[in-house]
Amino acid sequence: MKNRGLIIGASGIAGSNLADRLIEAGWGVYGLSRGRTQVSPAVQPIIADLASAESVRAALHSLDVTHVFFTAWARQATELENIRVNGAMVSNVLDALEAGPSKLEHVALVTGLKHYLGPFEAYATGAVPQTPFREEQGRQNVDNFYYEQEDRVFAAAQRQGFTWSVHRPHTIIGFAVGNAMNMGTTLAVYATLCKQAGLPFVFPGSATQWNSLTDMTDARLLARHLEWASTSEAGRNQDFNIVNGDVFRWKWMWSRIADYFGVEAVAFDGEVRPLEGRMRDAGTQWRQIAARFDLVEPDIDRLASWWHSDADLGRPMEVLTDMSKSRKAGFLDFQATDEAFFDLFDRLKAQRIIPA
Question: What pLDDT sits at residue 128?
Answer without folding.
Answer: 82
